[in-house]
Amino acid sequence: MKYTKLAAVALTATLGGLMVSQSALAEVTRGELMAQTCMACHGSVGTGPDATIPSLSRGFPRDLMIQNMRAFRDGTRAATVMDRHATGYTDEEIQLLADYFDARR
Amino acid sequence: MRDAEGATTMTISRRHFLKALGIGGAASALAACAQMPGERTRGAHVVVVGGGSGGATAAKYLRRFDPDLRVTLVEPNATYHTCYGSNWVLGGIRQMDGIVQTYGTLRDIHGVNVIQDTVTGIDADARKVTLAGGQTLDYDRLVVSPGIDFNWEAAAHGTSANTVEQIPHAWKAGPQTALLRRQLEAMPDGGVFVMVAPPNPFRCPPGPYERASMVAHYFKTHKPRSKVLILDVKERFSKQGLFMAGWKENYGDMIEWVSANDGGMVQSINPTQKIAVSDGGLNRFNADVLNYIPPQKAGQVAHDAGLTNESGWCPVNQVTFESSIHPGIHVIGDASIAGAMPKSGHSANSQGKLVAAAIVNTLKGRDPVAPSMVNTCYSLITPDWGISVAAVYRFDDGSIKGVEGAGGVSPADADRNFRMLEANYTRGWYDSITTDIWG
Ligand SMILES: Cc1cc2nc3c(=O)[nH]c(=O)nc-3n(C[C@H](O)[C@H](O)[C@H](O)COP(=O)(O)OP(=O)(O)OC[C@H]3O[C@@H](n4cnc5c(N)ncnc54)[C@H](O)[C@@H]3O)c2cc1C
Questions:
Q1: Which residues of chain B have pLDDT under 50?
Q2: Which of A24, A33, A92 sits opposite B369 (nearest CB)?
């Protein structure tokens, strides 16, 4: 399950390996919700639109996403609108997004 | 909802840890206002009122986030015409069948029970909704996304629900869009299109000005001696600098915007003669086609259910979009009061996802997720000239705010290639968001 990694990291950091309950796994995480907001422009699952905007519906490599989002944010990569979006995300949030999309590849 | 506000002092990461530990629901005050005793976690029933941008998104994402949920969507129409893209129809660059959406995928692929009917009553205490067809539905949670209705009491003298055939609003897409298009087609070259723009707050802040652009595009290509006149009750409007510069560049003097102080505040209208009057009769504007966009309020069903306050819109908890008046009912989209977020399809889509996550987590006794929402409003000035305004939203200090330093409008000094790219992305946005909502 896609949440396992995140939840496990958090647990190791705090309680050193306590088991995660079934319902904790089933909740909607912040990373998942945040990632869904990308899909308004970057294509829903399944019928990715044949549009000009790159689709994320089949996931995206983690490191590349972190690199791209930072470059948009820092202005080192040219953009029409992604610079204005990327500046809205912290490093931690970008990592949550990258984890989510990486797990969907 | 003081609890929710108090909880914001907790940092995101702490809340995250709590949730990962599975003790968030008990430890955080966030859940306190939301969860009701006896709510079922398996097979709970969520009813969604309205199959537009907010409601259809919520229905789909509820099922996606928790396939155990039963989700019923009530929508009176078999098809939905998006308002987005409806200005392109007026400009003659898209057909009506290019802005139509259907509910088959929600039903067949996503397992949403779609009922074609109108909600006539909501009983918040008994947790029941009544449909025009006589059916009643029990719900564990209700999502209400009825969009807007018109506030005729505050409208210009001489206008009413009975004058919309003569002076269409076309602010709900469908037959009104087709009607306004026909009127534009029938107008002789050299005629005047007058738009009366609505007061704040209204659905789609840049919408009237994209419409003026698209009508000008049609005129320029088919009726070049005609004029577009915008009469406004406002002193400024969304993306104003970009619109004004784009108009001058592409249409010369064809579009004229008259602000309230310059005599644009229309007080009365003669719908038969198509005359708009401002400044106590000082200014009279004769139109060949008159597009009157009335003041707006939350969709009528929200008023009937007692979900609105004196503003005519629905106050909601800014973390869960649960009504601050009736627990168990979440209001999203245009009808809701959502802090800094504009009333847009993109906002409604973002809120639909947030509310789906909030409901799924609440039913499981978990914390609602910290809000993370976005909006991008694209507008076409010509088919090759697009502009945008964007923002990322977070819950901060008790309200929904745009993240500082992020968002904003397209650069003022961009070249034609940039405008062309944004025009392409405007169409790409349409394809993507409609897939995200109804696909
Ligand atoms: C000209 C124009 C251009 C626009 N362009 C854009 C754009 O480019 N980008 C953008 O993001 N937004 C745009 N918008 C705004 C966008 O259309 C709305 O903000 C958005 O649709 C709001 O979603 P909603 O779910 O609140 O309402 P709606 O999408 O209007 O959906 C409401 C639904 O509820 C149903 N309903 C109402 N009452 C009941 C009842 N009693 N029982 C059952 N069902 C009911 C209605 O039939 C309707 O289907 C534009 C709007 C206009 C007018």
A1: 1-40
A2: A33
SS3 label, residue B134: coil
Burial A53-71 (b: 16+ CB within 10 A, else e): bebbbeebebeebbebbeb
pLDDT tens digits for B77-88?
Answer: 999 999 999 999
Per-residue model confidence (pLDDT) at position B41: 52
CATH number (3.20.20.70, 3.40.50.920, 3.50.30.60, 3.50.50.60) of B151-294 reads 3.50.50.60
Q: Which CATH architecture has domain B14-76+117-147+299-438?
A: 3-Layer(bba) Sandwich (3.50)
Sheet holding B227-231, edge to edge: B255-258, B227-231, B192-196, B289-292
The C-alpha R_g of chain A, in whole angstroms, comes to 15
Q: What angle do CA B193, B198, B201 make, to 5 degrees?
A: 155
Residues of chain B with CATH 3.50.50.60: 14-76+117-147+299-438, 151-294
> What per-residue confidence (pLDDT) applies to A44?
59
| Residue B42 distance to chain A (closest CA, Å) | 11
Cβ of B321 below 6 Å from ligand 1:
no
**CA-to-CA distance for B178 and B122, rounded, in angstroms?**
33
For an interface test with A, the pick among B16, B436, B437 (most A C-beta atoms closer than 10 Å) comes out as B436
HSE-CB for B178 with a 13 A CA cutoff = 9
pLDDT band for A14, please (50, 70, 90 cuts): very low
Whole-angstrom CA distances from B269 to B64, B158, B375 are 48, 5, 35
- Cis check: omega of the bond before B383, within 30 degrees of 0: no
- Strand, helix or coil at B375? strand
CA A58 remoteness from chain centre: 12
Among residues 35-94 of chain A, which lie with CB inside 8 Å of chain B?
36-37, 39-44, 46-53, 55, 80-81, 84-89, 92-93
pLDDT at position B33: 38
Q: Rounded CA gap, B398 and B319, in Å?
A: 9
pTM across the whole model: 0.90
> Residue B374's CB: how many other CB atoms inside 10 A?
24
Cβ–Cβ gap A53/B429 under 8 Å: yes
ipTM of the complex: 0.88
Output the DSSP codes for B270-339: ETTTTEEEEGGGTEEEE-SEEEE---EEE-HHHHHTT---TTSSEEB-TTT-BBSSSTTEEE-GGGEE-T
How far is the centre of ligand 1, averaged over its atoms, from the C-alpha of B299 (Å)? 10
The answer to whether the CB of B386 falls within 8 A of the CB of B221 is no
